Amino acid sequence: xxxxxxxxxxxxxxxxxxxxxxxxxxxxxxxxxxxxxxxxxxxxxxxxxxxxxxxxxxxxxxxxxxxxxxxxxxxxxxxxxxxxxxxxxxxxxxxxxxxxxxxxxxxxxxxxxxxxxxxxxxxxxxxxxxxxxxxxxxxxxxxxxxxxxxxxxxxxxxxxxxxxxxxxxxxxxxxxxxxxxxxxxxxxxxxxxxxxxxxxxxxxxxxxxxxxxxxxxxxxxxxxxxxxxxxxxxxxxxxxxxxxxxxxxxxxxxxxxxxxxxxxxxxxxxxxxxxxxxxxxxxxxxxxxxxxxxxxxxxxxxxxxxxxxxxxxxxxxxxxxxxxxxxxxxxxxxxxxxxxxxxxxxxxxxxxxxxxxx
Length: 358
What we know:
By secondary structure, the protein is α+β, with helices and mostly antiparallel strands. Among the domains are: about 35-155 and about 230-235, Jelly Rolls, CATH 2.60.120; about 235-350, Sandwich (Jelly Rolls), CATH 2.60.120. It has helices at about 5-30, 35-45, 145-150, 165-170, 210-230, 340-345; strands at about 35, 50, 65-70, 85, 90-95, 100-105, 105-110, 115-120, 125-130, 135-140, 155, 235, 240-245, 245-255, 265-270, 280, 285-290, 295-300, 300-305, 310-315, 320-325, 330-335, 350.
């Protein structure tokens, strides 16, 4: 342990207080609008462009938002004998243009424009473009969260120790737990849980230390099963919009719909021509990609005009409301870290003026 003087402890305490106050200023100064033309200009120089990322000055800490472009016949991420990768990151991919399929833990999932792909944490995956046009897709990934919490892992199958499918076929169902299924014969230990059962009476309802530990082991195994049993693709044709105080909404990736996510959630929102959404604020991050329409948003004291292809970034706990001034229905692709805030107990939402349409 590093020994510090009393004054240093006081300084560290005041830094915590000061951080909270300075965070408000960082949110206020964080960019809220990324024009489509800025992204298009960068795509001419590189096929992969980060749109929203904390490294770009955005005060968004748990997920990033980016666009990828692939030419006809080119795989989305790999070529040759590279079979895919996996990472301790949640990923939700929106297919903007093109059609093809993904192989996720040995299972093939076809998709087309407008669909979402929800890649489970630490699942082996790769993606293929089968269309006769260039493929364009957007992705929200929780890399910043994994990096900040120290759990970031990334593995590619182009290294011999990770040639899982190459050795056992594409249908191999390998573990999501690092080193689990790849352990050599005899490398795993089967534990007889009866050995640690209490030998006498104990306090009612109070688990033993061994029971708590075995719950930990069992949770990891069950968690793997939950990931594999979860849904992966959101079909655009199956989206059902329904009225809410914020307007017409269709939830895409959500725990209540059978998707195994802990940090990232995704929905679509629509605003008819000449109408406005509801107003609210919340303690979770939000990024909106404008799929169609034009209008403006009020974000705290800022008025931000937007159009098709733009991206809006809503600071945490900032009041915001959207207005459609165009002739067509505006549609938003909305990514948030609401599941993370709900599971940690930090969630808080305040509703203001409701939408003026059903």
